[in-house]
Every structure is written in C-alpha cells, then in structure tokens.
Amino acid sequence: MGRHEKPLDPGQGPVARLAFDLRRLRREAGGPTYAAMVRRAGYSVATLSRAAAGEQLPSLPVVRAYATACGADPGEWEERWYAVSQELTAREQADDASSPYRGLARFEPGDEDLFFGRDALGAELLDLTREHRVVALLGPSGSGKSSLLRAGLIPRLQRAVRSGEHAAAARPAAIRVLAPGAHPLDRYRSALVPATGDGETWVVVDQFEELFTLCPHPAEREEFVAALLAARDPRSCLRVVLGIRTDFARRCYQYSGLAEVMRGASLTVTRMSTAELRETVVGPARAHNLIVERALTARLIADVTESGSALPLLSHALLETWKRRSGRTLTLDSYERAGGLQGAIAQSAEGVYARFDATRADTARRILLRLITPGTDDTPDTRRSTARAELEALSGAPGADGVLEALARAGLITLDGAGVYLTHEALINAWPRLDHWIEQNREKLHFQRWLTEAADAWEAIGREQGVRISPIRLAQLAAHASDAERDDITPLEADFLAAGMATHRRTLRNRLATRAMGSLLVATTLLTAAMARRQRRLLRGH
Question: Positive or negative, the Cα torsion across 178, 180, 183, 185?
Fold first, then answer.
C-alpha cells in the first residue's frame, strides 16, 4: 500500500466518509501505491494522498482521477462527490447555534461581550482620546486594529457618556465610523460636520490606508486629510481617531499634520501576552457556556507565539474548531482536523472552492481577483471594496450571485449591503491558491484597477464623446485584448475602451489625412514652381 495513512473514522462526517470509501476502493483494487496511481491519474502523490486523508473535501477532478486510477467508474464517484458537497452545504446552513468566535470578520460594537484580551489597550486608547483631539492607532495587518476601534473603543465611549466619566464638552454627541474608500471627501463630507446638540462628534476612521490604496487623486487625499486635522481646533466640535497600518506610516509622514499626530498622539497595537491570548481563546467560549480543552489552549498559545502576529489566523482556527466541536467541548483533535493555525484558512477556502464546478470555480477566481488591489514595490497587496453590481456584471462570471453567497457563507468575503470585500487581508497570504492567482495576474490587475477608475470617472461626467486613452494604456490594452481577458471587464469598462479606441482611430485617420493634405500641398507647390520656371525659360527664349 505504500505510505502509511492515519486511521479514519467515517462517522466523523461526510468528508471523512468519502475519504474512507476512497481508501476502501484502493484496497479493493489491489492496493496500488500512490506512485503507481500517479501515472493513470495525472495528479501528484501528495494530491492523491490528501484526497483520502479526510481533512478536507478534494476537488471533483481529483476524485474522478482517483477512481480512474483504481479502475472504478468516475461517473459513479462524481455522484458521490456531489452528494457529499450538498450534505456539507446543508450542514452549514442548518447549524443555527451562534458562534462565540468571529473568524476572519472584525468585531463590531455589539460584539463587546465576546471581545477579550484587549482590556488594557482599550483603556489606554480611551485615555489618549481624552488628551488629544486627533489620535492615531497604529499596528500591522492582522493585529486587531479594526476590532479594537469598534468593540474596544466605541463601547467605552458609550459607557463614558452614560456614567459621566468624560468632561461634558468631550462627551460624544455622535459616533461615526467610516473607511476612506475611493472618494472619501465626496462620500463623507457630511460625516465631518458636527452633530447638533451638546457634546462633540467622534469620527473613527478605520483602514485609513485606503486613502492610498483606493483614492487615486492626490488633491482629494490632501483635502480629506486637512478636513480631519481641522478637528485639532477645539472650536471644531470634532474628535478623530485614525486606524493606520504601520506599513503605510511612511506615506502618512508626507503630510506634516499627520506626522505630528503620529509622533505625539499615537498608540501602537502590541502583541498579546500569554494571559491575553488565553482570554481570547477561553473568554468567548465561557460566555457561550462552552469548554476549551486545556491541551487546545496550550497548543493555540504556543502556535500563535511561534508565528508572531496572527490574530486573524487564531480567530478563524477557533471558528473552524468550534464547527467541529464535540458536544460542548472544543478539542485539540478538532483543531488539528480544521487545519491548525496556519492551515485553517486555506482548508476552509479550498473546501468551498472544491465544491464549485469548473464554471463556478472560474467565476470565483474572477470575483476574488476583483477584490484585490495589487501592491507596488513599497506597499503590500490589499483588499478592495467594490459594488456587488460590478461583480455580477462581469461577462466571464456566470452564476456570480450564487458564488458570492457561497464565499460569504464560508466567511471568505463580506456582503455589506451593495458592497463586497474580502473579510480580512490575511486571506491573501494564507490561501496559496489566491496568492498564486495574484502573482500570475499582477500586471493585468494593475491595468484593471486603472481601467475601473477611468471608466467610473467617464460615467460620472456623462460618458462624454472623444475620450482619450494614452498610448501607454493602449499598448497595455493590446496586451490584454484576447477574448479571455475581455471576460474580466464589465460592460461599462468595455464601453469606455470602445469609446477610447474610436477616438484613437479618428485621431489616426485625421493625422493620415493631414499628412496626405500636406504631401499634396508640397507636391502642388513643387509642380507650380516647376511650371513657373519653365514658363520663364520660354519667355526668355522669345
């Protein structure tokens, strides 16, 4: 039989049952080694062995290939695979119990009772906001800044109002939370106007780095920053708290006012202590009357400590462990079956991706790449919030609505009204498949982001005729002009490109006509001069 496989209990669930049946199929086929099966299956030893490991649902092509390599009917195993996929979907939808863990999603103000491990930092941030009118909260991606702002600071502000802790002038008349997006001033101008009544208006700007990743206009950035920094004037009746990723701090220092805030009124999100990590693991479970095995708590703390800042990985691993809980107990075995700290996100993502047929899998790829803003030499790849209508309009993305719902159920993306975004940027690096897609399409993604912004701007001014596209962009268009690439653009973007190409063709025709007229004029001038010289010679001869 070749490599040794861990014992498998088919009663653990549909994935384990399918893996158990694949192992039995292999035994009944005479126990070929995986190395021998590779020649018939066309997949690697590692891929075939994972299919029978029972840790995650293998893709349909892998199951068909496994069956073929064992001499079985692949059509029969395709039916089995679809049955398992449907059972998994039904289970996800049927589990009505409320999870104590948020997975990749951030904590919101209403999640305060589940937000553990940041009491000291939350109190420190509140004190800083009492001392300064504009404050910056700094931390790397995945350090929990958004959750600290929303579930750590905002509830404290609300309690301070009720208890009268704040001085009367500093009590919030309103608390507003926003993320800059592509056009921060147009979208949030009214949010920077103080609310009427006693007290001050607090503006919490989460994901401040979107000012650099999504807003393309330097002038608009400067105006938005100036509007926020105006809160330093006590007469403004505004107080501002900025959540900033540390890898964008250098960009912030380009604005003198922001640099002053970051030097004199900032707080850095630090790594959690062992005690804080233990509270993060055990506290939410305790609030839901659940038990966490001591061995699991110790393993989680060790894994997080070893990997450094990994709170999104921890939160997602806890969510997936909770889904596999044994009664009221979260066990170490469940954690390992979920993929552990480093593998849980990839396992969840691969699990939902494997349940798509070929068409929907390609739709998922196109959608997920639309949710990425590719980085540059000095900035990392980041998530991009976009309109659901934009994704559903992609000509090469049939069934987009169903794919979006499936990705949202798995916690990989968030559907926020008409908007869609990756639930957390940790997905970019934690899911190898997505990371590979990004690297494979990096140049095209840069072009697509420019195209989307340019087409939106064109739409905003009423689709004016005569739109001009630079020669550099036209060259990029030529590089991405195949039918397959055109499936990655929306009808609006296609119309913009068509208008730009029409203008370009008219310009070329006009240039050719001008050159032709110029050549004709030169020829006529030369002919006229020649005739005049000939006429003069004839006159002298007489």
Answer: positive
Q: Is 408 buried (19+), middle (13-18) or exposed (0-12) by CB count in 10 A? A: middle
Q: What is the pLDDT of residues 46-55, one digit of tens each?
A: 899 989 988 8
Question: What is the structure's pLDDT at 163?
Answer: 60
The pLDDT of residue 522 is above 60: no
Tell me: the pLDDT tens digits for 88-139? 766 665 666 789 999 999 999 999 999 999 999 999 999 999 899 999 999 9
Distances (CA, A) of 312 to 337, 405, 412, 422: 18, 21, 12, 13
Burial (CB count <10 Å: 0-12, 13-18, 19+), residue 437: middle
CA distance 322 to 329: 8
Angle at 404 between CA 399 and CA 405, to 5 degrees: 105
pLDDT at 32: 92
C-alpha to C-alpha distances, 23 to 53, 61, 65, 120, 333, nearest whole angstrom? 9, 17, 14, 52, 21
Report H helices in 14-96. 14-28, 34-41, 45-51, 60-69, 74-94
48: exposed, middle or buried (C-beta count within 10 Å: 0-12, 13-18, 19+)? buried
Answer yes or no: are the C-beta atoms of 322 and 281 closer than 8 Å: no
What residue has token string 């502000």?
157
pLDDT digits (tens, 9 = 90+) for 197-239: 778 999 999 999 999 988 888 999 999 999 999 999 999 999 9
d(Cα 171, Cα 162) in Å, to the nearest integer? 9
Q: Which DSSP helix (H) or strand (E) runs through 173?
A: strand 172-178
First to last CA, the chain: 115
Cβ distance 181 to 209 under 8 Å?
A: no
Residue 417 Ramachandran class (φ > 0 left, ψ -120 to 50 alpha, else beta): left
Tell me the chain's radius of gyration from C-alpha atoms.
Answer: 30
Measured between alpha carbons, how far is 505 from 469 in angstroms, rounded to an integer? 11
Q: How many CB atoms lie within 10 A of CB 11?
A: 8
Specify whether the CB–CB gap between 487 and 395 falls below 8 A. Answer: yes
Task: Tell me the pLDDT band of 461, cut-offs 50, 70 and 90.
Answer: confident
306: left (phi over 0), alpha (psi -120 to 50) or beta: alpha
Q: What pLDDT, on the 0 to 100 scale, is given for residue 528?
A: 61
**Contact residues for 507 (Cβ-Cβ < 8 A; gap 6+):** 468
Amino acid at 205: V
Q: Which phi and psi (to 5°) does residue 151 adopt? A: -100, -10
The one-letter code for the residue type at 279 is E
* Tokens found for residue 432: 């190898």
- Could you tell me the pTM of the whole model? 0.77
Mean pLDDT of 486-512: 74
Element (H, E) at 292: strand 291-292
Residue corresponding to tokens 């090469």: 396
The two structure tokens encoding residue 250:
């250098």
